[in-house]
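Box 3.1 — From sequence to structure: Alpha/beta hydrolase
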Amino acid sequence: MTATTEITHHTKVLNGINQHWVSAGQGPPVYLLHGFPETWYGWRKQIPVLAEKYTVIAPDLRGYGDTEKPASGYDKRTMARDVLALMDHLGHERIALVGHDRGARVGTRFAKDHRERIDRFVAMDNIPTRVIADTYDVAMARQGYWFFTFLQVPDLPEALIAGKEETWLTHFYRGWSYDPEMLTPEEIAVYVRAYQQPGAVRGSCMDYRAAPEDVAQDREDEDQPIACPVLTIWGEDFSAVGQAYDVLDVWKGMARDVRGVPIPQCGHLCQEEKPEVVNAELLAFLDGWGG
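Predicted structure (token representation):
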């Protein structure tokens, strides 16, 4: 964060769970939904820039960070309702929504279930859940999706990761970045502390264990494209997204109005690895958003 950015932490029981979020700035509301293995902290390089023009809301998703980690409710329809409850609490009738990774899955469901409440949507380095289900095989697992299966095994991931959170997380931060040293040890330590909290590893596992329900929800309305404008941004050098799929073509199958921006020399954590590019694209896409 910059020294001039005032960021405020909040907690409130909404949609049946204690939600944590941060806020900054004033203006039309822009919601930022993080992915795995991150928290709201993954948006620290966007919040100061966006807060100059917008009210920025960055929650910890259900099961992550300082938000409650219940035993259920990780299907994306329920997680989208978490966002809706937060909007209602804050008095935001309509938002611009930016989602990275898991946050983009929540955002996709939100854009379909609550069409009147979203003005525009950014899906960052994400292939929709249904598309992954339709294309998943051993080759795709080797390409980078192995942990989708691993995390769905009941109880075992939690047992193996306990006490080794730093090793587990660092594997992804290093392996998913074009520059393996992109995150400093101090930045990684922030995430490690978050994932060492009681129930945190289980929370992220439960997010992935909801995949069968998520796919079923996505199949119900696969013939109903997202109506609002969509921007998809991805790192060209991430093996599981930019190097595995025609990302723009995939998203053209999801929405009526789509623009795509590949980022060269960039891995999965686009907003952290290439913040200047991401921030410029977000500001351009948000231009004209008046709340």
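Summary of the box: The domain at 7-286 is CATH 3.40.50.1820 (Rossmann fold).
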